[in-house]
Structure formats: C-alpha cells, structure tokens
Specification:
The chain has helices spanning about 5-10, 60-70, 75-80, 90-100, and strands spanning about 15-20, 35-40, 45-55. With about 100 residues, it is of the alpha+beta class. A 3-stranded antiparallel β-sheet has the order 1-2-3. The longest helix is centred in the middle third of the chain and has 12 residues, at about 60-70. The radius of gyration is 13 Å and the shape is globular.
Length: about 100
C-alpha cells in the first residue's frame, strides 16, 4: 500500500523515506545513483504495509519487501535480518534506523 492507501483503509501509519543513493552499495550500480525508498508502517501492529522504491535495479529489492509485508514480520524481528554489505539491500537497515529502531 502507499501511505495514502493505508490511511484511506483506516490504518494508523507512519512513513519514512531514505535516499537509496546514500547506501554504500549504490556506488556499485552508478557513481551518482539516484533513487528513494519509502516504508509505510502500521503503527498499531508494528509491521510494514507498503514499500515504494525508485531507482536503477530496485526490482531486486521487491521480493524482500513482499516477504516483510505478506509475512507481517514485526519491525523488531526485521531489525535482526542484517542485509548484505555493500549492497543496495542495505536500504532496509537505513529505513529501520530512520524509523527509530
């Protein structure tokens, strides 16, 4: 879900964004990688209900987002799923840090 869709569905949500180009692994794709990741969290259940990704090769991140959303994995558990480094998948750690975990 987008943030707007989640709110329209009556969910209490908080969304955070992080520039994908700021993760170390982004330089493996391009010198000036430009992209954004946005995570929408249902704050009542502490689970991700939506993710929006823009940028080169973000398709590689879709499956991880799908697993987190469909599996309703609590953020506290996701925090322990350490991403590869250096890789664009580091974005998951940065989103969780931005959220405040």
């Amino acid at each position: 879900m987008t943030e707007r869709q989640a709110r329209a569905a009556g969910l209490r949500v908080r969304a955070v964004e992080y520039p994908i180009g700021r993760v170390a692994g982004a330089s493996l794709y391009a010198d000036s990688y430009d992209g954004t990741a946005k995570m929408v969290v249902d704050i009542t259940r502490d689970v991700i209900v939506g993710v929006t990704l823009t940028g080169p090769n973000v398709g590689e991140l879709i499956h991880a987002a799908t697993v987190a959303v469909v599996g309703e994995v609590p953020l506290s558990r996701l925090w322990h799923a350490v991403p590869s480094y250096p890789a664009v998948s580091e974005i998951w750690l940065r989103l969780l840090e931005t959220y405040g975990l």
